[in-house]
Amino acid sequence: MIAGVFAAVSAWQTRNVPSGGAAPAFALKTLDGKVVRLEDLRGKTVLLHFWATWCGVCRYETSALNAVHARLDAGEALLSVVADSENVDEVRRLVAERGIRYPVLLGTPDVLERYRVSAFPANYFISSGGTIRSSTVGMSTRWSLAARMGCARR
Questions:
Q1: pLDDT tens-digit profile of 43-57?
Q2: Residue 144 sits in which domain range?
């Protein structure tokens, strides 16, 4: 029964999101103005998390992402990309309010388009070689995020 529920939820979460190809390259700024390039993380398994400040599910998911981030090893990375990054002060306020401890990058329409992000939250699990191993849309638990990270390492 539990396996059936997991399979149904997984099928729903992976609809309309790409996987299997090369992860589109990007160079995005952090809230501190530093530039982060996906290619600089080559050799690491990456959880790339897209979210929006207005998304209630995204706000709820923060604790799961903080827990995953706290347990990452040296060969793993978690990056989050905020879609509505026009108001940096609002993003900073939300990051502080929610206690976000993982890196937050300021998204651009180009990056959202290349990753075909049309709903939030959206997660991409990228192998150390730069291939999208899987992707999900919608609420995820810390267990499912960690499990998909483990699968992306293979």
A1: 999 999 999 999 999
A2: 2-152
